[in-house]
Task: structure prediction
Amino acid sequence: MSGSIFGNIFRVTTWGESHGLALGAVIDGCPAGLLLDESDIQKMLDRRRPGTSKYTTARKEADSCEILSGVFEGKTTGTPISVMVRNTDQRSRDYSAIAHVYRPGHADYTYQEKYGIRDYRGGGRSSGRETIGRVIGGAVAEKILSELGINVIAYTSSIGDIKIDKFDPEYLPSDPLGMPDKDASDKAQEYLKKCMADLDSAGGVIECRISGAPAGLGEPVFDKLESELAKAVMSIGAVKGFEAGDGFSVSKSRGSTDNDPFYMDGDRVKKSSNHSGGMLGGMSDGSDIIIRAAVKPTPSISKQQETVSDHGTDETIEIKGRHDPVIVPRAVVVVESMAAITVADMLLRNMSSKLDSLREFYK
Amino acid sequence: MSGSIFGNIFRVTTWGESHGLALGAVIDGCPAGLLLDESDIQKMLDRRRPGTSKYTTARKEADSCEILSGVFEGKTTGTPISVMVRNTDQRSRDYSAIAHVYRPGHADYTYQEKYGIRDYRGGGRSSGRETIGRVIGGAVAEKILSELGINVIAYTSSIGDIKIDKFDPEYLPSDPLGMPDKDASDKAQEYLKKCMADLDSAGGVIECRISGAPAGLGEPVFDKLESELAKAVMSIGAVKGFEAGDGFSVSKSRGSTDNDPFYMDGDRVKKSSNHSGGMLGGMSDGSDIIIRAAVKPTPSISKQQETVSDHGTDETIEIKGRHDPVIVPRAVVVVESMAAITVADMLLRNMSSKLDSLREFYK
Amino acid sequence: MSGSIFGNIFRVTTWGESHGLALGAVIDGCPAGLLLDESDIQKMLDRRRPGTSKYTTARKEADSCEILSGVFEGKTTGTPISVMVRNTDQRSRDYSAIAHVYRPGHADYTYQEKYGIRDYRGGGRSSGRETIGRVIGGAVAEKILSELGINVIAYTSSIGDIKIDKFDPEYLPSDPLGMPDKDASDKAQEYLKKCMADLDSAGGVIECRISGAPAGLGEPVFDKLESELAKAVMSIGAVKGFEAGDGFSVSKSRGSTDNDPFYMDGDRVKKSSNHSGGMLGGMSDGSDIIIRAAVKPTPSISKQQETVSDHGTDETIEIKGRHDPVIVPRAVVVVESMAAITVADMLLRNMSSKLDSLREFYK
Amino acid sequence: MSGSIFGNIFRVTTWGESHGLALGAVIDGCPAGLLLDESDIQKMLDRRRPGTSKYTTARKEADSCEILSGVFEGKTTGTPISVMVRNTDQRSRDYSAIAHVYRPGHADYTYQEKYGIRDYRGGGRSSGRETIGRVIGGAVAEKILSELGINVIAYTSSIGDIKIDKFDPEYLPSDPLGMPDKDASDKAQEYLKKCMADLDSAGGVIECRISGAPAGLGEPVFDKLESELAKAVMSIGAVKGFEAGDGFSVSKSRGSTDNDPFYMDGDRVKKSSNHSGGMLGGMSDGSDIIIRAAVKPTPSISKQQETVSDHGTDETIEIKGRHDPVIVPRAVVVVESMAAITVADMLLRNMSSKLDSLREFYK
Result:
């Protein structure tokens, strides 16, 4: 069954392969009347573009986007928004080394098993370039959220053993690793240089914070905000773990600590702590929504590895070319995008929860 | 929007509140010809039933199930399977203490915000009793999986700081905490007694292992096996974290370690390690599928807590009655159920991946 | 794939077989705060109950419904509403005449081909009793619509050659055929008596009118109001045709006639005719929405028919027992229900069309 | 909610406006291994292209398609197939006559009401050019069906009062009105010339026949083959009626006539008539599947019409330019496409109906 469509009302369909002609997304269900132009999307795409620092692949792609439909006189019309990015770096290559060998840690083997065929050029659809469609969707979603005073921000919270100790929003945009802490970033860069010298790669953790969201987003039982965010984030290649709020550390906590006390702040209900990560019973509780994604080390490494071919022989492989020694920095905007898409969809889904809202809307 | 339906082909709709007349599930899309009777479901329900050990609530419920449709002469017919469990322990209670006060760590506040109304009797739909419907669905799913040689087993891997050191399948069924390691369980029980003495509660981690699944399950891009499992498991109340394979520890790993080497075992492709948890590119790779869920401490504790009322006053609350001091043991079968439902659905979704399969099917 | 779930936000899951223990429906996505009790549903169920006139089967069923969840203190809570009707007329019968023979015009053969098994007792899931679940859903949907000033009414517009000439709303409820025209009904009853004397059955047409709906309901391109209504109505057993507005007669019309002129009535846009049946471009235009369903003659007839057995022999069959000589009168409330469910769902889907609506809702 | 995605496993997302940069479709869920190139799609697109006869608009569009993803080395890979058609005839026009006036019979008013904004250039998304995306999806679907020996063919069965009397497959491709009967077509052309002379337009009926489909396609209860086909066809602009098999004439038939007798033809079950149109109980019965669509007269006519402006004044309008005097001939391939998409989707959905099929597939 098709797995390239995400969302229920705000729905994002993505398409495209690493070395195909183009990649893109179609956003259906975007409310009409949103100011939108290519620059809104381009600035998000630029954050995931390759070649922006020494810790990313040298592939040169402008990744310049074109809005093909759904916008008229600068505003969305409610009809599908189709956005395309042409691939430009498609010089012919020699794929003979990987065309018939399964790269460890990659999707080569599973694609072949599932479909009986795979586009081996740069990983085809399983390439990180697939995330262009997600970022397009995320850019539109963030535009909606910003209209409602909701802010989404993702950043690198750890690489290897090195964790951030502070959150410096001024510094963040300039950090090559997406870390909001210069000291931690410096240490992480040392660690990455060592990994690169070892022909190896590193992993890390991305954190995302959504502030300004109203209480009540999320649809019990199965479509809780937490479960939809988990699906969204775990669908990003290389993500192997997901946390909401205190995440795995809740297992060592106690109820008296983990429960966030409520108090009145004027006529508003607030919490004096946020162990829940802004979600209770799977619905937003008005506090900041906080999630984390664990990202595995780049599977493409230059070190020699044991593997097999698609005709059943044992092989060794050394993956040539320059690859991102760490996926994390470029995945930051992808996590942010998936979070934004999910929250936008849940905002729309939430509108019909109360009969009173229908009465108000249709009066 | 409705959030009580899970799955795409194998679809489970659950319904019911803690203190309503009954709870149940409707399973649509179950293949015809499966041997099924109440005992298949009852034995799963018995694993989540309250009152089975000193670490679970004393509420007495037989939780006895009735199949109302979809089975004829002992076999499923392809039509919806409706299964119901009547609530029997519905003696009238005094809810005045919680009817207008939001219990910290619970969904009271968020339900009120979203719907403008909530069934305060025992948490209504946000109660753990909601999982009866999940277990019904899981029982049917596991029956399908067992027909295909696929086995799903979940167990407690940690409570508080205490982790299992071994996996003893013989011992597991008799352990009151769902741990496959008697030594660890003994320590965990000591810890739980201490929590109970402190009028407090504990959290833990549940692990689930699916063995015998073919390679290729999961639908890229958004509906990867990992992302569907994440959604399934994160939708269970009190779960705050999800891992596949090495999970969060991948962030500290390196590519050369994290990549699982392939090798040929006769004519079969195998992996010499399983850091990936049986999934590559979001599709099963033929190894055991391994996932974990972090479960927060029971939010209902007898200790005094700060909170607010639904008319905007600060309050303190002490939650009366006896509650599970830890949710983990009873949630084990729920995690197993959600994993089984997800894998069953992905098995059905996978059948149309190749044109050759259509040709074979329709020849 | 499962086909027993209808709708996108307001979602109705139905279950149950003709001679199983019970039938029912689960309504997910109903807005919270709707006054609802069993009598709201029962009065709709009573309209489809057998045994109410000489033109319906003599099977005796109270068809009395029980609300099992989703309502608290007389109001919907936003959680799934589960409603069940127990089968009471389940005396053991002799099915040997039809257990292995395919009844012409019925679903026996196709169920057997699809599922390899079928519940031959009274048609199992393909029985008209399946519509109990639809009427349950319809009753809840009509309750929502009535809160918004939207009225849905269905009636028999023709039986055989006899068409209604007028619409008498006072008379309608008392007519045994669901016709709003006593003269036409009298003629139709004569025709039916003749069919019955011939051991034969008759067909007819049901019309449904939805008034008071706002303009803009329906989601272009594929989920137009017309297409969703068509799916809804064509999914009712025995319906073989669907029309919106002028329906098939548009094929003989001209643009200058078929186009409904607009005019201003104060500050409201109105149309001076309604050939479109209240829908333009697949969205409601503010006029009455008018649809029609063609219902085939009851396939169960006492006349001898040629058929085959499920072991591949030619057979003749005479279907014993008393059957409705015409399905139309009892199907009227089913068409009305499916229309109401569809409109309710489209009302909810429509709420997020404009960014301004989001701004208003979340301010 | 988004309405531009059709299907459950084989899913078609369409996008694009009449006077935007481009139109297209993304097909997700197409099985891997299908031979596909642009010519497969182009030949279908050419059948709906404007300017091919005097009965179609004079707008000049090459409507040349480009496959952007999902095909590798000539075969589908199982990943989304993105296909785009650039608009070339975008010379600037004077829209002042229609920018603020609602054309009768068009979607101008309803789009404005729903979205608060509309792309008035050529009808935007409500234009017939929207069907380009449907035909792209239909071309891929027909390619799958042809691999399985299933044939889909649509044709004009009537225009105005003139009905076809025979089916001449040799003649059909050359007929300017899509009629398989030269005599009827000649008469219809006379009728159309008269309509054109009157500055008016005509309607008609399209019939579609699907042969070679196996029994058992269609998912009871709501997702019957008939109901999915009804939704598919009624979603095409200007279609106001749908019939399966005998359609509305069943209302005048009797059970003894309408029921199709079964008989054995060797070891195959056959029917000696086909009043059911190849569907029983909503599932295909192995006979030819026959459906019909009623198409209204082109709403764009040169005759003067009464209407209103979007600022609330009564207006008259004469729609300039040359328009198709009848939509039917160009809609034939669109009906065929929607039927093919639906049947392809139902073929994939049907594969998991029996447990035995799973056992066979996963052994």
Remarks:
- Chain C touches chain A through 29 residues (CB under 8 Å).
- The radius of gyration of chain C is 21 Å.
